[in-house]
Design a protein that fits this description.
Chain lengths: 116, 112
């Protein structure tokens, strides 16, 4: 099956700094990528939809200036958490939807962010 | 808005036991329904799906039937294995949209 990678798998940063998380589709082109946030014992919450070459579409309540998303190519999307605070600590998961692959998304393994 | 409710975990079973994880949904129209599985340390993987009422999705011995009358999509397996230990997520999407709405997930542990 298709593979989606995320880097880093975990990161610890200090409050006020910015952190970039990469999401790559390794063996297929992804026209659309999604970014989710998952709290402990909670569901995955969609943060934004990222389309290659255009601005991301953010879900209601997600601060676009805080969570910067760039989908620069058909295989790479990045999420930058700017001026991170402890409340941003979470598990961030990306998924990629390939061309010609109906009804199925491929998920990355997730990135654990801890802000101290 | 659309939502998915699945049974709270964790669920602990012995090998070869019967598994049911309940999932109900609230949505307008006729959503597509999915079960995803997340093994430890890995990303979510699509387990099975159903796109219209009365469809049965099946994979790896797991089954789920799209029941419009009860707005349910319960996951079942007749005989679980230790390797089935994972977190299971029920999800829906609307009208060909790629956006998924997830339940909270149910952690399954199967003991030998």
């Amino acid at each position: 099956g298709a593979v989606v990678s995320q880097h880093p798998s975990w990161v610890i940063c200090k409050s006020g700094t910015s952190v970039k998380i990469e999401c790559r589709s390794l063996d297929f082109q992804a026209t659309t990528m999604f970014w989710y946030r998952q709290f402990p014992k909670q569901s995955l919450m969609l943060m934004a939809t990222s389309n290659e070459g255009s601005k991301a579409t953010y879900e209601q309540g997600v601060e676009k200036d805080k969570f910067l998303i760039n989908h620069a190519s058909l295989t790479l999307s990045t999420l930058t958490v700017t001026s991170a605070h402890p409340e941003d600590s979470s598990f961030y998961i990306c998924s990629a939807h390939g061309t010609g692959r109906a009804y199925e998304q491929y998920f990355g393994p997730g990135t654990r962010l801890t802000v101290t | 808005g659309d939502s998915v409710t699945q049974m709270e975990g964790p669920v602990t079973l012995s090998e070869e036991a019967f598994l049911t994880i309940n999932c109900t949904y609230t949505a307008t129209g006729y959503p597509s329904l999915f079960w995803y599985v997340q093994y430890p340390g890995e990303g979510l993987q699509l387990l099975l799906k159903a796109t219209k009422a009365d469809d049965k999705g099946s994979n790896k011995g797991f089954e789920a039937t799209y029941r419009k009358e009860t707005t349910s999509f319960h996951l079942e397996k007749g005989s679980v294995q230790v390797s089935d230990s994972a977190v299971y997520f029920c999800a829906l999407s609307q009208g060909g949209s790629e956006k998924l709405v997830f339940g909270k997930g149910t952690k399954l542990t199967v003991n030998p």
